[in-house]
Amino acid sequence: MEELRTDRRWIRIQEAPLDVAPASDFLRVEEAGGIDLFLGTTRRWTDGRETVQLEYECYESMAVSELDRLLDEAADRWPLSRACILHRTGAVPLREISVVVGVSTPHRDAAFGACRYLIDELKRRVPIWKKERFADGTTDWVEGERPPLTDG
Amino acid sequence: MEELRTDRRWIRIQEAPLDVAPASDFLRVEEAGGIDLFLGTTRRWTDGRETVQLEYECYESMAVSELDRLLDEAADRWPLSRACILHRTGAVPLREISVVVGVSTPHRDAAFGACRYLIDELKRRVPIWKKERFADGTTDWVEGERPPLTDG
Amino acid sequence: MKDVDSSPPAIDVRLFSSLREQVGCGSVAVIVEGPMTVDELLRRLADEHRAVQAFLSCIRVAVNQEYVGESHVVGPGDEVALITPVSGG
Amino acid sequence: MKDVDSSPPAIDVRLFSSLREQVGCGSVAVIVEGPMTVDELLRRLADEHRAVQAFLSCIRVAVNQEYVGESHVVGPGDEVALITPVSGG
Fold first, then answer.
1. In b/e form, how buried is each residue of A59-92, taking b as 16+ CB within 10 angstroms?
2. Which of 27-46 (B) contact C at CB < 8 A?
3. D6 in contact with A, Cβ within 8 Å
4. How far is D2 from chain A (nearest CA, A)?
């Protein structure tokens, strides 16, 4: 488990099952009128193959730092009241939640924009990897986009 | 209270406080990999004026029918696994939830697209009105967009 | 010979929010001789109620829980509602 | 006269997911004489490990929990990690 929590942001990597209620409670503040929450869940079928569970590996210390940088970037672009990103590691069975990304903002435009930005960038940059375990017994490490090396 | 619930969609108008967990539980199904949830909450400050609560009035039977038509339209445009729209009526204090719009889809693009469409159209078409009650004792019925009369 | 009702045929028109408060009632009855268009119904209501007149440019009409156009025909038994600009969410 | 350490200076490089499985270890040590660029470090690792070679075109390098460019200079004490294409979410 690795966590970073301030008044306005909450980042957490955990093995335990994720629930949406604590995220919603964290995000609901007087200055916000809109909250967008994205949940990633384990899907059974992908291109005709049957998945039995996903298994997540995480470089936890860096993941928290990178998520914190992502939230800095989002806060520069949108007026975030609060934001949270919670990610589960280890095995995530069908229907269960692997990630919760949530933001609250005064108006809904910003909430949708920031939430979408955060989950898209998380999938591009944050050092977390998923392995699909299929019903036929095989497994596959899923590879995301391959961005070019850029000077830091 | 007015409700319409099928295997795949859940529409509900209620006076009782709204919670995000039942929506999330309804939306999490094996065929979905992404869930987008929008929550509307009562905001304290709007253009320098202090709100103490919002009060919602609803033409309930029509609201449910219109929401059902909205979900038909969304289902035509996006591959919805499940969708729910829950709206509270009566007084909604600061920080509390007035509306929950949620969709689950195989991939996240559709979840974000459909959820945004549903809340935007809800605010345009569904017969629900909010009155702002301000700290100075005054009240205001909020008027949304004024669309032109169109045939049928 | 025709049947004679004890009361003339009427359409109950439901009102909400600001319009309900200004008219002072959640519904108003409009006596009708026969079928009429939504446009005609609105003009009748606007003649009788200043509040309806004031909202006329932005009212949408719903018949039996669905928005209809100005030329839609209504009669007794229909559930009619005047929908001022909505603000749910 | 210089101090003589019992072991030569080395950088521990952390590996994850597919690369970790293929190399068979969560980290590998690279013995260094002095500071070197990330580019040089990657070439050294690719020479020693076929799996690193195979991923070379798509590995990003993180130093002290942050992505760095090829010309970034690393030395003993830095926390270095090879990040193959990520797939969280």
1. bbbbbbbbbebbbeebeeebebbbbbbbbbbeeb
2. 40
3. no
4. 35
pTM (2 d.p.): 0.95
pLDDT given at position A57: 98
Q: Are B123 and C57 in contact (CB < 8 Å)?
A: no
Residue D2 CA to chain centroid, in angstroms? 27
Distance CA A40, CA A48 (A): 20
Whether the predicted pLDDT of C51 surpasses 70: yes
Residues sharing a CB contact under 8 Å with residue A6, sequence separation 6 or more, in sequence order: none
Residue A25: enclosing H or E segment and its boundaries? helix A20-27
Dihedral over alpha carbons A19, A20, A22, A28 (to 10 degrees): 180
- Yes or no: say if B74 and B83 are a contact pair by the CB < 8 Å rule: yes
Q: Distance between CA atoms of C82 and C22, rounded to whole angstroms?
A: 13
Residue range A42-92, pLDDT digits in tens: 999 999 999 999 999 999 999 999 999 999 999 999 999 999 999 999 999
User: What tokens were used for D49?
Assistant: 């490990």
Read off the amino acid at residue D71. S
User: What's the distance, Cα to Cα, between the start and end of chain A in Å?
Assistant: 27
- As a whole number, mean pLDDT of residues A84-106 equals 98
What beta strand segments (E) does chain A contain? Answer: 2-5, 9-14, 34-41, 45-46, 49-58, 82-88, 90-93, 97-105, 128-134, 139-141
Which range, of A114-118, A148-152, B127-131, D51-55, averages the lowest pLDDT? A148-152
Candidates A40, A62, A144; nearest CB to D65: A62
CA distance linking residue A136 with residue A132, whole number of Å = 11
CA distance linking residue C60 with residue C67, whole number of Å: 7
